[in-house]
Amino acid sequence: xxxxxxxxxxxxPILAGVLTLVFLLLHLVPGDPVDLMLGENAMAxxxxxxxxxxxxxxxxxxxxxxxxxxTLQGDLGRSLRGGGPVRTLIAERLPATAELMLGxxxxxxxxxxxxGVLAAVRRGTWVDSAAGGFAVLGVAMPxxxxxxxxxxxxxxxxxxxxxxxxxGLAHLVLxxxxxxxxxxxxxxxxxxxxLVAALGEDYIRAARAKGLGEARVVGVHALRNALIPVLTVxxxxxxxxxxxxxxxxxxxxxxxxxxLLLDAIRARDYALVQxxxxxxxxxxxxxxxxxxxxxxWADPRIRRP
Amino acid sequence: xxxAARRALALGLLLLLGFCLPALLAPWLAPHDPAALDLAGALxxxxxxxxxxxxxQGADILSRLLYGARISLLVGLATVALSATLGTAVGVAAxxxxxxxxxxxxxxxxVLLAFPxxxxxxxxxxxxxxxxxxxxIALTALGWTGFARLARAQVLGVMPLDYVQAARSLGAGPVxxxxxxxxxxxxxxxxxxxxxxxAGAILAEAGLSFLGLGAPPGTPSWxxxxxxxxxxxxxxxxxxxxxxxxxxxxxxxxxxxxxxLGDWLDPRRSRE
Lengths: 305, 272
Hints:
The complex is a heterodimer of chains A (about 300) and B (about 270).
Chain A: H1 2-27, H2 33-38, H3 44-54, H4 60-72, H5 86-121, H6 126-140, H7 143-157, H8 169-199, H9 202-209, H10 214-252, H11 257-266, H12 270-298, H13 300-303
Chain B: H1 3-29, H2 61-97, H3 99-113, H4 119-128, H5 132-158, H6 162-169, H7 174-210, H8 222-231, H9 238-265
Helix pairs in contact in B: 1-2, 1-9, 2-3, 2-5, 2-7, 2-9, 3-5, 4-5, 5-7, 6-7, 7-8, 7-9, 8-9
């Protein structure tokens, strides 16, 4: 309980910092954001109206307090391009991004676990080297190259899979592989390393001495313990997945939060940009908090300071 | 160093040589002017005269690739030089000062790290506008935090050691202790981080340029070239192939170098 409270209290200053930074973002715009949004030739009345809508006609301190007040009530303002409340726009896009990230995690784990286990069990053989090669290349390969390559091969040449719209499972495959490959590469190395370490432990010798088959020793006894550090890495990689999703969504025209952010940037819709950045950062902080709490629950040692 | 590790280092250095030399010698190596447009030859596939083919504006891809290496190298090195200097200074100061100073600096780092991956860079470039200088600013705003955390952790490790205590009891001032006694002893891991940092910065620049937020239009940035190639993927896949391979090779090179540096500094790490 104490751990829980501590961890939540620890998050509060971070949240305050994120809110402040996102607020300041608009004030980093060189020159006048209103000019940038409306163009230099806009009518004075339009400018004044936009300025008032953004609250830019008030002192900075007051702007900040108003922003905090309404954000804490869940009001993220309105799109400057007439798209309606920012909160609604974001809520419409969230499921697509969640689906993409979940798909990427399934791909990441689905590739990494078999590869990592094979590499650990067949340590020093060509299987191990091949898995190592995949990991090194997978980490270095940018997803904005992998994505187009996959489209070229599986959608254009072979015509096996659809692209460029969200739909059933088939539509998710290429985006999820694009986003999940980097994760798969990292996790396969992690799985291999921690399984190799686990296989050297005394309880494995005990399990073997009991006469258990190799599959049971590796699959049940070693792997279960080896997975804890792997899960930690997944938690840490959520940030990379979130920002990778922005690029992946742009490759596949995936209608998620990332595309919304990029469209907002292109349209200079700063209210929407602020909203997207805030929501993405807050979900990251929240996911981190939840993962930490989950570890604390799973591994009592972490709960002690 | 094991046989495999030595082989990996050799491959890394070879890749980096294959990156740095063209970057430095681009004006002499490039067969064509990277900005020379010729719509009549647009999307020409690889062949004699244009070994990697031409892009949708008819520019020679090999020449653009060579000039693009300069952008990647410049952004990568500038970002890491700035990030490492700023981050190490902050981290050393925080670790040495302790107390409220350390708390304030490290909470700032925590807040910046609460923005996942590229998000902060994307947001900064979105408001600052595109352009290479703004890209370096945005990536530095992101990159210094890692160096600060690393440097602080290193400082906490060496502070209780005899040589720091000895310097202090001999009456050395804080600046002298930090600069002369602490800094040289924590630089190893920072070099390792810098090597990975260059790879990360090159990847990030290419990513931003791919999204249209980095290099201004017409710049032969590898990320921008990939973005151009994506729109003609069906009729001319060769436009996307070369810049992608180039990015991967360079990132791989810096990663292998970082791994090798890390193993060399801490031989326990390379053990199974």
